[in-house]
Design goal:
The protein is α/β, with parallel strands linked by helices. It has two domains: 132 residues, no CATH class; 162 residues, no CATH class. Helices cover 25% and strands 21% of the residues. Strands 1, 2, 3, 4, 5, 6, 7 and 8 form an eight-stranded mixed β-sheet that branches. A two-stranded antiparallel ribbon has the order 9-10. Helix 5 runs antiparallel to helix 6.
């Protein structure tokens, strides 16, 4: 069995891979990854004799369960962290769709660098085509929606203000496509997520509790958002981690005056892009709070207590 395994491996390495089409041409195979339906399928056009195939995923370790390949002679699943091989005595004749869903961890999102090659009796080694069906690029957890949980995942990648270099494992967060994860990706995510949820304008920094909204829900930035930020105010980044829902609007590791400035600039209890009929008293209070922070004369929590006592 070891000699047969080695013979096939050497055979796989010798030919130059030929290109396949999608949908696959007659006698060829293709791999389809559907992160919206959370399925991965092997597609065969007419009867195809499969000797061996390799699926490579730089993003994740493919789940090493066995079973869906029938009597495939050799299957090798590769990633940057895991390799799994399954061997049997024979080959498989395929026609139609073969379910490979259990091999893919959809919780890590779509792997746009997924690769697939196979060996059959007709064409030798073939570089199979991979067809990826995914949700919007703002959907990082493959649940077919863009909301607060997605930007929380982006924040786990590191200090976005300092900039996080793009790698194969975090590339799906780089929705601007400039090979760095930074506040520009946050801005683009806010825009795409608003569009995906039916709004004509982006979500705004300062809105701690509105990113799960869908049109026609009113989006606003009010005292609830202010109280959230003030209760987590942590310029020294001692009590992190700090996510968007805590008041971290720039994607660094703290909640500081920069985050407060986003909130105060966009503060509007009546809704995004609306003009209050008269100046609200708490707008004046927010301005006083900003000055107090700069002067270091009052903590956010103390200010909340003062404001509540005087209204």
């Amino acid at each position: 069995m070891k000699q047969l395994h080695l013979a096939i491996c050497l055979f796989l390495m010798l030919p130059v891979p030929a290109q396949a089409d999608f949908p696959p041409a007659a006698g060829e195979l293709a791999l389809e990854l559907n992160t919206t339906a959370q399925s991965m399928s092997l597609l065969a056009n007419e009867a195809t004799e499969l000797l061996a195939m390799t699926i490579t995923s730089p993003l994740q370790a493919l789940n090493p369960q066995s079973g869906p390949f029938g009597i495939v002679f050799l299957v090798q699943l590769e990633s940057t962290t895991d390799v799994h091989s399954e061997g049997t005595l024979g080959f498989l004749s395929l026609d139609g769709t073969t379910d490979l869903t259990q091999l893919y961890n959809f919780g890590l999102g779509p792997d746009f660098n997924l690769a697939f090659e196979y060996t059959n009796l007709d064409f030798g080694l073939v570089q199979g085509d991979v067809h990826i069906i995914s949700g919007p690029t703002c959907d990082f957890n493959a649940d077919s929606t863009c909301n607060l949980s997605d930007i929380d995942l982006m924040y786990t990648q590191g200090n976005l203000v300092a900039g996080v270099p793009v790698t194969e494992t975090n590339r799906h967060f780089d929705i601007v496509g400039d090979d760095i994860l930074d506040p520009l990706d946050i801005t683009e995510w806010l825009s795409q997520t608003a569009t995906e949820n039916g709004y004509s304008s982006p979500f705004q920094r300062g809105d701690t509790d509105g990113l799960n909204s869908t049109f026609p829900d009113t989006r606003n930035i009010d005292l609830t958002d202010y109280n959230t930020l003030s209760s987590r105010f942590d310029p020294s980044s001692i009590h992190g981690p700090h996510l968007w829902k805590h008041g971290n609007f720039d994607g660094d590791t703290d909640i500081d005056l920069a985050d407060y400035n986003f909130l105060s600039t966009n503060f509007n209890p009546n809704g995004y892009n609306t003009v209050p009929a008269v100046p609200e008293p708490y707008s004046v209070a927010l301005g006083i709070f900003g000055v107090a922070i700069v002067l270091g004369s009052v903590s956010p929590l103390r200010f909340v207590a003062i404001w509540r006592d005087t209204t």
